[in-house]
Design goal:
The protein has 314 residues and is α+β, with helices and mostly antiparallel strands. Helices cover 32% and strands 22% of the residues. Strands 3, 4, 5, 6, 7, 11, 14, 17 and 18 form a 9-stranded mixed β-sheet that branches. A 3-stranded antiparallel β-sheet has the order 9-15-16, with no helix packed on it.
């Protein structure tokens, strides 16, 4: 239950709806009180709202929860709250049922009035979020991408996306942080100059079951509202979970997104490139396998056989 002044609502989304539809003066607050409230908001750390699979503030400790992301945000200048009317950025991730028209309208007006959204949705549940993001000319397809060029240390469905130059990706490019998306699908966009790709698959990628539908595909895009906020859409939710948030550059990517949306300096440090960040082809991996399993052991066996034969002759 969220309560503000004499109003009360059963869910944070209802609170956000009423906040956007009713100016603060209608709640009966005097001007000095409003001034004090605004000064505290300006001085306070950026406030983040969280909508996760029809529940709020999802910070579970299981592999699919987001406990470790919440812990990382606690070390940064962010306050996570279920009171969406106070939020500057709202993370919407892993929804399992569609938002109502009232809830969709509330989020649309939230962006139009300067708020920002980070929307993370897996391909299997793309239809749940598409009615909302269609408003900004964006749609997530439900067919996962297969990328032949990916490192064979991962499944072909696990993507090491290309980072497109943007303030959100610049710290990762400079620091050599490579994010990993586990099972993503193409994001289709309407012809609109306000939509900017952030992550893309390689030209050797295609959608499962259709090798004719080839990439590169958009995996993450940014929509900017003129005079309003911004909307980030990523066709994968798993990369922020406890299981994957510390894999590759996933933690750095979400922190960089939040930093740009809240006008903060990203606290991301350079890292050294590791073997699994290099782009191995299937031929490279086959040659490496033959070398490590056949040629190298066979060479040592042949060397030992030669030594044995020479000693036998002596």
């Amino acid at each position: 239950m969220v309560r503000t002044g004499t109003q009360q609502w059963t869910t944070p989304l209802e609170a956000l709806t009423l906040l956007l539809d009713n100016p603060p003066q209608e709640w009966g607050f005097a001007e000095p009180v409003l001034t004090g409230m605004l000064s505290r908001i300006v001085a306070a750390p950026p406030v983040m709202g969280w909508i996760s699979g029809t529940t709020q503030n999802n910070t579970q400790k299981g592999p699919n929860g987001t406990y470790w992301l919440a812990a990382a945000l606690a070390q940064e200048p962010y306050t996570v709250t279920a009171n969406l009317q106070n939020a500057q950025v709202i993370i919407v991730e892993g929804l399992t049922r569609q938002l109502t028209r009232i809830q969709q309208g509330a989020l649309i007006r939230f962006v139009e009035r300067g708020g920002s959204l980070i929307i993370l949705q897996d391909p299997a549940q793309a239809g749940v979020i598409n009615p909302l993001i269609h408003h900004w000319g964006v749609q997530i397809q439900d067919t996962p991408i297969v990328d032949e060029s990916q490192s064979n240390y991962f499944r072909q469905e696990d993507l090491l996306p290309k980072l497109i130059a943007h303030p959100m990706t610049a710290p990762l490019i400079q620091g050599k942080h490579q994010p990993l998306l586990a099972v993503a699908s193409p994001i289709m966009v309407s012809p609109n100059q306000k939509i900017m790709p952030l992550l893309q698959s390689s030209a050797q990628s295609w959608t499962q079951g259709n090798t004719q539908h080839q990439g590169p595909f958009n995996l993450a895009v940014l929509y900017s509202v003129v005079g309003g906020g911004q909307v980030v859409v990523v066709s994968n939710r798993a990369w922020i979970t406890n299981q994957l948030v510390h894999t590759q550059g996933n933690r750095e990517l979400i922190l960089s997104m939040l930093a740009v949306l809240t006008h903060q300096a990203p606290s991301i440090h350079p890292t050294h490139q590791t073997l699994d960040q290099k782009n191995f082809s299937r031929l490279d991996f086959a040659l490496l396998t033959v070398w490590s399993l056949v040629i190298l052991p066979g060479g040592w066996a042949l060397f030992g056989l030669i030594l044995w034969w020479k000693r036998k002759k002596w």
